[in-house]
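Progress narrative, work stream C.
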Amino acid sequence: MGGALACRLARAGLSVAVVDRAALPPMEHPNFDGRAYAIAAGSRALLEEAGIWDKLPHAPGPIAQIRVSDGKPGRPASRLFLHFDATELGAGPGHGGALGWMVEARNMRMALNACLHAAPGLKLYAPAVAEVTRTASGARIWLDSGEDFPARLVVAAEGRDSPLRRQAGLTAARWAYAQAGIVCAISHTRPHDNTALEHFLPAGPFAQLPMAASEAGEHISAIVWTERRDAAPRLMALDDSAFTAEVQTRLGDHLGAIRLVGQRWMYPLSAMYVHRVTAERLAVVGDAAHGIHPIAGQGLNLGLRDSIALSHLLIAAKAAGEDPGGPALLARYARARRLDNLSMLVATDGLDRLFSTDNPVVRAARDIGIAAVHRMPGLKRAFMRQAMGIG
């Protein structure tokens, strides 16, 4: 998230400019639209340091527990399961008693836009189109308004089709999954007790993520549902009643009767890995640097960890009088992010291939593996800390 990085750096006293093609009014899209972000415990620190967390207009919903199970739609889940509980990590710092938090997309947009407009030392050009030139001595940004200004470092945070990344000749490996992601929100009659469900089905993972109460209902959960790409459009075309019945079939009845709230969204799923995330006077972050399967809900958090690493390096460089866009700093950023980005890509891709199958032999093996991890406290804690970004 480039905006969070910009706000963090501005609050640390660095001179920052943000150029965005879209206008960013502080109250953009204020209505509940069914989308939410899962913010890992380790990522929350950046949002706090950027001033975004305190500006969230509604409280986020904590994820205190996660239950992982295997099964088929309309059938009971396997009796072999894996259960994560934040209390198993003790009362140490870094997680605040939760594995993560669910933040409504509208709340994040409103808080981020408010910070972008208010951060000291941050110049916001939106909407604007920029041309960028980079040399060993520095960069220059030319705006469509006719204004131009110098920079010592350019950060590409424009998403998977980043023009700045392409301009720099940084290549990306891509592959598509035969799956689509369906995103929506439901209200339910029973409380979720801040517990998330990750239910592995033959077509892909089905996740229920606990959200805080809002005007949409007292008991609200986000749904992130991976389905076969050829089946997803048919499901999206169903009326609300039939669509809700399909969700209920996969979710089960532990939350009672459910009702669809907000809109439904569908996204084709794919993965991407950028071999080099730096070039002369350029650093690449977030979706411009990588794209992963949503099976573990780590896509946004992986991008926030890019911003955490880069912000630490740039703030230290300012204190030391070091060139913030020099080759030495960019090399440290690339080293800091290479292993995390690659390992998360490999892990999510492997998990999807392991769990998105109905092969009975594979199902039996993974059920045994899930149950084995559940009975190994040390390994469970290691998995939790890694997923929370505090490992």
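Work stream C, second folded protein:
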Amino acid sequence: MAHDYVSPLADLATDRRVIFYDQLGCGRSDRPDDPALWTLDRSVAEVDAVRDALGLDRFHLFGNSWGGWLALQYTLDRRPPLVSLTISSSPPSVDRAVREMNLLRDRLPAHVRRTLAHHEAGSFFDCPEYTAAIMVFYKRHLCRLDPWPEVVERSMGPSFGSGPYLTMWGPSEFGPVTGNLAGWDVTDRLREIGVPTLLTVGRHDEMWPSNMQDMQAAIEGSELVIFEESSHMAFVEEREAYMTVLRRFLDAAERS
């Protein structure tokens, strides 16, 4: 997804510089047609390239969803000079995340489940009927605001679900994951994280709060905040409350 949906974090720019970037292959960045580019290792290198180009010697790092997985891998592999790390709705295991998303899928209305199953069986992933059925899930577990804000609509535009997504994940939100993120799991490495860490999640999130609670237990000194009225985009759904929490955490990390 393009960065637009996380742009509410610009609210923090009253106190500090806030930097967004579109990853290669989405948003306003170049979109080369080369599946060999869409790997986690190259994405980690891209984060470091952005950091180096902007001269960020000490910085806070935020990642939501896939961005949280990327932030975790980057932190674990590169040991960057972080002031703090914020992981939003990003559990440390792809297999567990998919398993729990499918449990939520099982709670959808029967006709929606039938539509999903029919189209997946025939690989009709581009059919408008399938998209409409997916939206029922998204309205419950991705963003619960109605209507969706413009920043969310822009991020769900043409680049979403395109080459990088297909190569790294696969054609279906619910798996099985057929891309190169299959089996990704850093659960056993969470104890290596030694910087101030904030974990956030929505009560209705497709990434379960219980998963993030287990993550909090594994990262020494980390903090978990559950946003009761939110799903996967708490910084959009409960914007003011989220910014209050995040600003407090960043200030505390800087003082320490």
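Residues 3-255 form a domain with the Rossmann fold fold (CATH 3.40.50.1820). No further action is required on this item.
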